[in-house]
Design goal:
This protein has about 400 residues and is mainly α. The chain has two domains: about 5-215, no CATH class; about 295-400. The chain contains 17 helices and two strands. The protein has a two-stranded antiparallel ribbon. The termini are far apart.
Length: about 400
């Protein structure tokens, strides 16, 4: 059984996020907000759920090109193959990341990673739900050059895991030699900043050398301000991922000429077809920052505890993917996204959340009882049994807190 490296790393991610929170509280630094952190985690969960469904499909092109079109086969020492693969993945990551900031399509699917106005380890998990469906194209040259799929996957995983630790404000400058060669928290804080001098800088994943070579490096001097120049003003992971893509589609359809409709996707963010140039960058700092839905404490805590079962489902999907029948996996993914939408609506206190959440809990109970009747003696059955019991308790808590007495739910 092959273990997903991301699935194995998730418990360590959560432990490090908890450690960073403890250190920030002890040092009296405001690094975390609960609603912001839950949105970060929701984005990460949604990314992994979609990745679980699409994993085989996205790897097909790489495998086919490697098996049929490669121009070289690595038979040298193992370290030569590893160094080439690591450098290759990091090099093409730089160009994918640069594309993500400098084209409308790239930014629409990548902006979610930059929407948080905080900067902490949880932000590293705030990943796009849709970028994976085209980002693989940037790494196809490695298949053509002969990097085996196993080596590519391992190198890609290392590249992704490395970038987790650079999302922190608690680590200052590291030794100069390290800062000159590698991506560090200082370099990546610049990348996430919306200060004018920091925009579109420091795209590198592991080696900051790529930015130095291609002219996109900027050192951290002034205090960074995080977020986007057009704040999202929502705690919904679904809205954070979907709304930029919807806006791009709407803008594309509104263009008069077919040529402009098609090419707008490859234009820089802020492109204005009428003047054939990028419109002026919004003022700094932008209006609409520090959005807060100010939910009731009971609503916030209820939303928080819903992350227990969804995290259990995701971890099980990643660690033992071969044990999930396809129809049960689809049920798990639907449950995951339904929960993410409901959790955000709970702590934003949307007026429709009562019926939506009751429907979710009842749906989980019915689906869970069906799974238990068919897979009671498996790991999936044990996981499902725990979630069903949890939802019975959750349904009671939700009914009491949201139907008893006068609610503070607002639009």
């Amino acid at each position: 059984m092959k273990l997903d490296p991301i699935g194995v790393a998730v418990p360590f991610f959560m432990a490090l996020i908890g450690l960073e929170w403890v250190i920030s509280v002890a040092s009296k630094k405001k690094v975390y907000r609960l609603n912001d952190t839950l949105t970060d985690l929701s984005c990460g969960i949604g990314d992994q759920l979609l990745g679980f469904l699409a994993k085989g499909t996205l790897a097909f092109a790489y495998v086919w090109i490697y098996e049929n079109l490669r121009i070289y086969t690595f038979e040298a020492n193992w370290w030569v193959s590893w160094v080439f693969a690591m450098l290759g993945v990091d090099f093409f990551h730089y160009w994918y990341h640069r594309f993500s900031h400098r084209t409308q399509l790239g930014w629409a699917t990548h902006v979610v990673h930059h929407q948080s106005e905080e900067y902490n380890l949880a932000v590293a998990l705030r990943q796009s739900w849709f970028a994976k469906f085209y980002s693989w194209v940037f790494y196809i040259p490695l298949a053509y050059l002969g990097v085996p799929v196993e080596l590519y996957v391992a190198s890609f995983a290392f590249n992704l895991l490395y970038q987790f630790w650079v999302h922190t404000r608690l680590i200052n400058r590291l030794p100069a030699v390290f800062e000159w060669v590698f991506n560090t928290p200082s370099h990546h804080r610049v990348h996430h900043a919306i200060n004018t001098k920091y925009l579109d800088k420091n795209y590198s994943g592991v080696l900051i050398l790529w930015d130095r070579i291609f002219g996109t490096f900027e050192p951290e001097v002034e205090e960074p301000l995080y977020g986007t120049l057009k704040p999202i003003q929502s705690w919904s992971a679904a809205w954070a991922n979907v709304s930029p893509c919807m806006k791009l589609l709407k803008d594309s359809l509104s263009e008069e000429r077919l040529f402009d409709k098609l090419t707008l996707w490859a234009r820089p963010p802020g492109w204005d077809t009428r003047t054939a140039r990028v419109i002026q960058v919004p003022k700094f700092p932008p209006d609409g920052r520090e959005y807060d839905a100010n939910p009731r404490r009971t609503a916030m805590m209820y939303a928080l505890i819903q992350f227990g079962p969804i995290s259990l489902v995701l971890t099980t999907l990643l660690l033992i993917p071969d044990q999930w029948p396809s129809h049960v996996a689809w049920i798990a993914v639907i449950y995951g996204f339904w929960t993410l939408v409901s959790v955000a609506a709970i702590y934003e206190e949307r007026p429709w959340v009562r019926s939506f959440e009751v429907g979710r809990l009842l749906g989980v109970l019915l689906a869970g009882l069906w799974i238990l009747s068919n897979y009671s003696n498996s790991t999936i059955g044990l996981v499902t049994g725990g979630i069903v019991s949890y939802c019975f308790l959750g349904l009671g808590i939700f009914v009491v807190t949201h139907f008893a007495g006068r609610s503070r739910v607002t639009a």
